[in-house]
Specification:
The protein has 222 residues and is an alpha/beta fold. The chain has eight helices and eleven strands. The strands form three sheets. Strands 3, 4, 7, 8, 9, 10 and 11 form a seven-stranded parallel beta sheet that branches. A two-stranded antiparallel ribbon has the order 1-2. α3 packs parallel to α8. It binds tricarbonodiimidic diamide (TIU). Tricarbonodiimidic diamide binds next to α6.
């Protein structure tokens, strides 16, 4: 496919869809459904629901165009050897990472709560990357996958805007990827952090990347 031009801020961006991957960050039951990690931290999980439908639409468009689609999941080994005590022990959550909740052990791989939400479930052939940290590059084979597929641009979606989406965008930007963030495909437990997080990406001439929305990406894909 030829280059397409996507309306974005701070300026429009031209990309080749064949060199572009969609990354769905951590659209897991643990963050979006009751009794998971997000709720144990004291958050109102209903604030994340707005991103689901736009992500669904964008995924459908990306699938139609044969784009590389990657899903990530934050979580830890059942033996928790990869879970830093500094992460597990902090704060006063109602249940800690590894404790048993209504969706199984909190943020542990293989548990029901760790799985992706049914609305955005991966299709056959789509990569799922398990990551122990907030960024999708840290301690994963994401960069190898992107290099093997000749990817230069990332469309980064998911939750939460200022935590795992931002960390991944920053990691990707430093590795030379052009990052495009559709704001309606991201959400935060803190609406003001969502807004400012998007502003931070596109400020200073696009210091971390570009911001757009799902409709503008779908319109450009045609
Ligand atoms: N707590 C919070 O806002 N986010 C996370 O812990 N992980 C992700 O953002 N995925």
């Amino acid at each position: 496919m030829a280059l397409i031009c996507i309306s974005a801020e701070p300026q429009d961006i031209e990309i080749d869809p064949a060199q572009t991957a969609i990354i769905m960050i951590d659209m897991q039951r643990d963050f979006l459904q009751p009794g998971g990690f997000g709720e144990t931290l004291g958050n109102d999980i209903s604030l994340l629901a707005a991103a689901v439908e736009p992500c669904k639409n964008l995924l459908a468009g990306a699938r139609r165009h044969g784009m590389l689609i990657i899903h990530t999941r934050e979580g830890h080994r059942p033996d928790m050897l990869d879970a830093p005590p500094a992460k597990v022990e902090r704060g006063q959550p109602s249940a800690r990472i590894g404790d048993v909740g209504p969706m199984g052990r909190i943020l542990i791989r293989g548990e029901p709560g760790h799985d992706l939400i049914p609305e955005l479930y991966p299709q056959a052939g789509e990569a799922v990357i398990d990551k122990p940290g907030k960024g999708a590059f840290y301690a994963t084979d994401l960069q190898t996958i992107l290099q093997n597929r000749g990817i230069a641009n990332l469309i980064v979606c998911g939750v939460t805007t200022e935590v795992c989406v931002h960390t991944t965008v920053r990691e990707a930007n430093d590795r030379g990827y052009r990052c495009l963030v559709p704001g309606d495909c991201c959400a935060s437990y803190f609406p003001e952090f969502h807004d400012v997080g998007l502003r931070m990406i596109k400020a200073q001439g696009g210091i971390f990347g570009w911001v757009t929305d799902s409709d503008r990406i779908l319109a450009a894909l045609g």
